[in-house]
Amino acid sequence: MSIETIKWVKGCARIIDQTKLPNKFEYIYCRDVKTMWQAIKRLSVRGAPAIGVAAAFGVLLGIQKFKGQDKAKFLKLFHETCDYLATSRPTAVNLFNMLNEMRAVVTRHPHADVALLKKLLFQEAMKIFKTDQEVCRRMGDHGANLIKNGMKCLTVCNAGALATVDYGTALGVFYSAKKKAKKFSVYSCETRPLLQGARLTCWELLRQKIDTTLICDNMAASLMGKGKVDIIFAGADRIASNGDTANKIGTYMLAVLAKHHGVPFYIVAPRSTFDLEIKSGKQIPIEERKSDEVTHFAGIPTAPKGVKVYNPAFDVTPAKLISGIVTEYGIIRPPYLKNISSRLGG
Amino acid sequence: MSIETIKWVKGCARIIDQTKLPNKFEYIYCRDVKTMWQAIKRLSVRGAPAIGVAAAFGVLLGIQKFKGQDKAKFLKLFHETCDYLATSRPTAVNLFNMLNEMRAVVTRHPHADVALLKKLLFQEAMKIFKTDQEVCRRMGDHGANLIKNGMKCLTVCNAGALATVDYGTALGVFYSAKKKAKKFSVYSCETRPLLQGARLTCWELLRQKIDTTLICDNMAASLMGKGKVDIIFAGADRIASNGDTANKIGTYMLAVLAKHHGVPFYIVAPRSTFDLEIKSGKQIPIEERKSDEVTHFAGIPTAPKGVKVYNPAFDVTPAKLISGIVTEYGIIRPPYLKNISSRLGG
Question: A250–B221: do the CB atoms touch at under 8 Å?
């Protein structure tokens, strides 16, 4: 039943092509960095932690065909590869954080030769991969303590196994709660325009036999108004020092609605999704994507030709609307500036 | 440029098939009541005021082929036709209100013979048709006073010419503002699951050369958070005595978001959308529609097989979240119980 979203297999990064789910289960075998860049760009692999791992594997793909011992040439290729991968998507900070981890290997070993650097970078990428697996399970276990029997939970987009190596952030909470034999049900917001909630989250949750109901994004308020949502869990693409959180478009909507209805609203994200370099969410770059994601479905127009479209992929939820942030180090509560720094800083 | 959503043409009710827009402009010619019932049910004609007119025309279709002078048989057919049409959709009260107008014709003329009743019912249906045209223009003119130059407006679903005979409720406000040479722009929420905002509202507004930007429903909060929405106009399917308003699913979401962001939120609806028989929104029946509206697009699955779906077509916005209700008699403000009764009651 386990889902292997991204895996290094014999010199190649194998990823599940998430654009095809739930109708087809297909792998993409990335054998060069350009294929990986495109897979990230068109969302064949998506989700902040999974993108972080994809970036690390992308670096391996970029350097593995390098021949010879010329370290200057090797480092040039290495940094070009990192710079190139950094242009794939702007918002999820895991991408940049994991590229920085890879660069730090080179910095830490100024005297290593090309062969050793290749080996150390490979080890670092595998460490990033394994760390994601462990960290997700720890987050899940912390978050599962928030779920009480009979609770009706709500989530948005896909913060699951498909957004990480194999377990998930927000959905990891559900998997851990299920392991602890808790009874609960989940509403999955479909998450327009690309329907990651409908296509990916429902697919994952049904595989794990979790009681799941799909809704359109505009139905969440109605559910909350009827008292049918007890708690909300969302993932994150970047969290600022003050707790402001960028996540899939529609997350801010849910946070405002949760506040109005007195529903607890939690973010679930690992240390690698925090950007302690920035003070607030205002400094998070928000990716705007092509209009045809909104105006077409499967090539069929769903809007008149020529209409203008606003299509931000993310929004920023101010920290004051967040009840807590579930991390691998436990649940961080307000005041966030102080508590994020003391738990994760330094 | 005018849009004739529904029109009586030579013994037949001609309607625009709105399920085909914006890709195809086609008429359906309803020559019997069953065709009209199905057109209402599958949303070929939709929008509370348009459904009201469709019901009145449906009655004409039901009785026009009646032969002979047997009044008892005629009345039986007439009432069966009304009862049948009343089963097409449950939420929009205009349907029931207009059927009641037709029944009242019969009640008012106890001594009329079959030929006279046919004539009087035809006249009543034409009056309902013309009243909608006039009332929409009056609402539009009242509402246009709320629009100031430079305003960024937001609307949901389609409360336009396509939801009425030819002018609209919420969109009628924009048409009247445009006539008054006001400068403004409109965000149209796409309105899942059936995309009436993307397919119908954008189509209408572009035809009238109104500056229109399409968004997914889950982007409205983000826009409001950035101060990009100055005022919201929505239509209505049923308004209770206390001002609670049922409208397309997602309207309640917008009202809560508007409250949080300090954005004025207006309902635009004629007298025929009020149900003064009920005390509050709790008494409004909410139609739940088939799950495949959410799980499929154009026959293609967008969710895994077997997932549960919650698909209410409407939600109820409590009166306390509504800044004002624009009617043909002017803008009704809180306290609604008192002001609705004094303006519209009796």
Answer: yes
* Sheet of strand A6-8, all strands in order from the earlier edge strand to the far edge: A6-8, A13-16, A27-30
Give the integer Cα–Cα distance in Å for A256 and A259: 5
- B204 CB contacts (<8 Å, ≥6 apart)? B3, B158, B160, B161, B162, B168, B171
Tokens of A299: 């090539």
Rg, chain B, Cα only? 20
Tokens describing residue A136: 């997700």
Cα A214 to Cα A88: distance, rounded to the nearest angstrom: 30
Q: Is A115 helix (H, G, I), strand (E, B) or coil?
A: helix
H or E stretch covering A178:
helix A170-179
Active site residues of A: 237
Query: Measured between alpha carbons, how far is A187 from B294 in angstroms, rounded to an integer?
Result: 14
- In chain B, % helix, strand, coil (3-state, to 5) comes to 45, 20, 35
- Could you report the predicted ipTM of this complex, rounded to two decimals? 0.96
Helix/strand/coil for A118: helix
Phi, psi of A233 (to 5 degrees): -125, 130
Q: Is the pLDDT of residue A346 over 80?
A: no
Residue A59 has pLDDT above 70, yes or no: yes
Distance from CA of A211 to the nearest CA of B (A): 8
Q: Is A281 exposed, middle or buried (0-12, 13-18, 19+ CB in 10 A)?
A: buried
The CB density around residue A183, as the number of other CB atoms within 10 Å, is 12
CA distance linking residue B269 with residue B93, whole number of Å: 12
- Residue of B91, B199, B253, B296 to mutate for A, most A C-beta atoms under 10 A: B253
pLDDT at A223 over 80: yes
Question: Which residues in chain A are contacts of B223 at CB distance < 8 A?
Answer: 310
Average pLDDT of the residues in A92-106: 97
Q: Show the beta-strand stretches assigned E in A121-258.
A: 151-156, 184-189, 211-215, 231-234, 238-240, 245-248
Q: A139-150 pLDDT, tens per residue?
A: 999 999 999 999
> How far is residue A71's CA from residue A116's CA, in Å, rounded to a whole number?
11
Coil vs helix vs strand at A31: coil
Residue A194, judged by CB atoms within 10 A of its CB (0-12, 13-18, 19+), counts as: buried
Tokens of A235: 């993932």
Can you list the residues of chain B whose pLDDT is less than 50? none
Q: Give the burial class of A259: count Cβ atoms within 10 A of its Cβ; 0-12 exposed, 13-18 middle, 19 or more buried.
A: middle
Return the sign of the alpha-carbon dihedral for residues B174, B46, B315, B101: positive
Q: What is the pLDDT of residues A1-10, one digit of tens each?
A: 589 999 999 9
CB contact under 8 A, A222 and B191: no
Residues A267-281 have a mean pLDDT of 97
